[in-house]
């Protein structure tokens, strides 16, 4: 067995990626402080062909060297938009037929392992601040609150790790 070279991976070019159909979900990052986390989520959104990445509140935006460093070019391939007011964004997406899924530990949450996405429905996954999580008003607006099962001593996962788990799980179930 040997590792494949980059040329053997047959990855899409940025232009090919832009022209390729995306999966029916988007990611909403709200008040993410770490620019490295933002860059990492860009890479995840590229790897799992998210339709769009929304950067809300104080979440940093490209161009910024710390985002660029971890995004490895994904800021050029992933469609993104900065939206200052996450509440208005979530309300508009709901009006447009998106299912809002807050990723948070909350009373009555659904374990990600039990989550069954509705076929042919677009999903917007909301990921909140590294310290305070998804804000309460967004949890209240959400159609579903998803919780990633954890079995260790810590009570949370890094935002970039969370994004990867949620995207992978969603695509596996679709």
UniProtKB/TrEMBL annotation:
Transmembrane segments: none
GO biological process assignments: methylation; RNA processing
Any single GO CC term annotated in Swiss-Prot or TrEMBL for this entry: cytosol
Domain of life: Bacteria
SUPFAM superfamilies with a match to the protein in the record: alpha/beta knot
CDD domains cross-referenced by the UniProt entry: SpoU-like
MF terms in GO: RNA binding; RNA methyltransferase activity
Keywords from the UniProt entry: Methyltransferase, Transferase
InterPro entries noted in UniProt: Alpha/beta_knot_MTases, rRNA_MeTrfase_TrmH, SpoU_MeTrfase, tRNA_m1G_MTases_N
Chain ranges of the tRNA/rRNA methyltransferase SpoU type domain: 26-168
Name of the protein described by the UniProt record: SpoU rRNA Methylase family protein
């Amino acid at each position: 067995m040997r590792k494949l070279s980059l040329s053997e991976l047959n990855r899409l070019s940025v232009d090919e990626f832009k022209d390729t159909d995306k999966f029916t979900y988007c990611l909403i990052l709200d008040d993410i402080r770490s620019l490295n986390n933002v860059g990492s989520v860009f890479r995840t959104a590229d790897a799992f062909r998210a339709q769009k990445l929304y950067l809300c509140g104080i979440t940093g935006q490209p161009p910024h060297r710390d985002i660029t460093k971890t995004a490895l070019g994904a800021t050029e391939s992933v469609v993104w938009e900065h939206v200052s007011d996450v509440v208005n964004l979530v309300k508009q997406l709901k009006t447009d037929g998106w299912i809002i899924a807050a990723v948070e530990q909350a009373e009555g949450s659904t374990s990600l392992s039990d989550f069954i996405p509705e076929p042919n429905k677009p999903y917007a996954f909301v990921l909140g601040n590294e310290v305070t999580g998804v804000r309460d008003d967004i949890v209240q607006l959400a159609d579903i609150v998803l919780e990633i099962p954890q079995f260790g001593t810590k009570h949370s996962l890094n935002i970039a790790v969370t994004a990867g788990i949620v995207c992978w799980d969603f695509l596996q179930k679709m």
